[in-house]
Fold this protein.
Amino acid sequence: MVEKRTPIPVMEAIQKVMKFAKEGEAEVVPLEEAYGRYLAENLQADHDVPPFDRSPYDGFAIRAADSALASLEHPIEFEVIETIGAGQVATKEVGPFQAVRIMTGAQIPNDCDAVVMFEVTNEYERDGKTYMSIKRSFRPGDNISFQGEDTKKGEVLVEKGTFINPGVQALLATFGYAKVKVAKKPKIGIFATGSELLDVSEPLAPGKIRNSNAYMIQAQAIRSGATPVYFGKLADDADQCFAAIERVLHEVDILITTGGVSVGDYDYLPVIYERLGAEVLFNKIAMRPGSVTTVAQIDGKLLFGLSGNPSACYVGYELFVRPVIRTMLYSSKPYLYKTKATLLSDFPKPNPFTRFVRSYVSAKEGQLYVSPVGMDKSNIVTSLAKANALMVLPGGTRGFAKGDLVDVWLLENEKGSAQ
Amino acid sequence: MVEKRTPIPVMEAIQKVMKFAKEGEAEVVPLEEAYGRYLAENLQADHDVPPFDRSPYDGFAIRAADSALASLEHPIEFEVIETIGAGQVATKEVGPFQAVRIMTGAQIPNDCDAVVMFEVTNEYERDGKTYMSIKRSFRPGDNISFQGEDTKKGEVLVEKGTFINPGVQALLATFGYAKVKVAKKPKIGIFATGSELLDVSEPLAPGKIRNSNAYMIQAQAIRSGATPVYFGKLADDADQCFAAIERVLHEVDILITTGGVSVGDYDYLPVIYERLGAEVLFNKIAMRPGSVTTVAQIDGKLLFGLSGNPSACYVGYELFVRPVIRTMLYSSKPYLYKTKATLLSDFPKPNPFTRFVRSYVSAKEGQLYVSPVGMDKSNIVTSLAKANALMVLPGGTRGFAKGDLVDVWLLENEKGSAQ
């Protein structure tokens, strides 16, 4: 009466899903809206940086050779023939022992090859002319930011697939990207299943719980770079489920259902997948939580049947859906950022399955530490709020002790891992 | 001719600014829009979790006492009198050697005190009735998730000022927050100054550079939780600057200008602050980059005069503006997350001032490592794109060597530090 399912290892499950992950579409947005998106093409320099030799300070541009004999005892005097601000260009020719008053960012006058900062000069007027004197010598190139010393025209500065942070935003502006080609946000359709689910605004009733998964997954979808579309609750009826899923499938890039994937009497999803003609990639994984996670594909479109239990649902999203989304966003590092941390407390429970323990990673004196948040029962929603990492404990291991170095996958790191 | 300014230590400058930081306003948003915002009140449980004793598995609810004598040799048979799914409540009284077929999440029937998972039962029919048998005994409480074992009604689960991540979003749904009281996003007005600045869509011209700071700060403002309002470029004219700033000041919570704060001939901001009647908190800091960062206040409203140089502008925002914003968002940890990391390469430059070096922090085998990104000239914008941290090197130190443990302030960590 109970269907028997064969669990597959979690890494194998991820690989099966990722075979169907492919790059998504691109769209063009104004620079003002580019922050937080992902580059759909390499960001290239359209000019040298600096674009011309320029002054990094407020001071005087001079011909260095004129300063050769300057000393404390024998200051050398320069006639100040012109003043240029940033954005201005010198108009006069600079002759021997002449100088141009120059502001930060302004282009070095043609005949000059050094800048003397205000602070080391003595400026004065005489007979209606302005002079300044210096008490030390300068070499050609002193205090000049040279054209192209930061970046050469044509250089690739940021690669396709990169998250657009404030620094990338500044680069886009610098190189004239008034419009930016970014990855289109994948559309994720979401259905919740389960007649025990109440809407958030409904009062509690016997046997019922509020629907938290739909809201959680919408937030996870946004965090991973996608646009969630919540289609509401599926009825506990196979025909209605089928009709609802078939109706929306073409509108979304990915479809997620939560609940209904167990082998309980009211778990209709296996039937739905069959009726849709979808290929079930797996329906049981050797992991906790989330062992009943089911993934199917139809014409290359992925259908994720995540567990109805909040923690399993959360982990299922991060493990299976996120890397697909990030691949659509052109990332070459679509997986959660994987590293290690020192366990802060004993974790004695042995388990035959790979465990993903909701945890908090912190840093101290150059070391990363990890501690599980809350008890690790799979029906506990509170621990998700405090988790910034999943601690990954391989199956078949005995418990772990305080001080052990364990694997952690960071949930809030934009960087990601390549595998 | 050149104004003399006295630099103050960076931590003192931050403290001077933070004296004017205060909690902002709150607003109510639908739960769907709460992700990414900051809680304006504590999140409390409005009911026990679980709200009733419930089954964590698909199986049979029984009276544990009835199973006492079950063994491999002597299976004990139960009559299955009813089936309940999640959200349903048992309607029949359960007598001796009777059982209820129960799905994950369903409420435990009144008379039952244990759940037997499908996997360890043998289910069959006889004479039109359904039976199951078990070959081991169960104790009262076996396989039951008890009411309130996760969370008690009234408990504070997440504190005011917390970033609403997907886990917090799930909690809000669970506890019926259909509308969520969140911190209103502070409004940050932004002006760029400098006649050398071209708009992003303009072609390059001699002596000119494109305006990248305005876009960068808008992105930094969003990242820190605020709403940027870009007012465009200020003219290089004191009267026009004054008029423009006076006109918008009442529309924003904070005003940022970039550029115009040096002691160059075209740096009008000191004059503007004076005309506005603003109190200048400081106009020179013993730090690199960003030494000319100026902050003023008028009637408690902060005016930040950030440097026009992109790196100095970036660092100035993160050091001085961000903690003010986070305080307005009710955070008790408004500063960048501060920790330490091992230096991956020599950094030999000595410097009398505290340096904030744009850096990349990575993790390996439980350790944090840091390396500077790009050369650290203050006019280099490219390094900002790759930085996820500021390496903080105290003033008065000689160079640092590979392997040294140095301070790092993380730019992309939601958690923050209390000081």
User: Anything to note?
Assistant: Helices of chain A lie at 10-18, 166-174, 213-224, 238-248, 269-276, 310-328, 382-386. The first strand of chain A starts at residue 26 and ends at 30. Chain A has four domains: 10-25+185-328, 28-49+150-183, 59-134, 337-410.
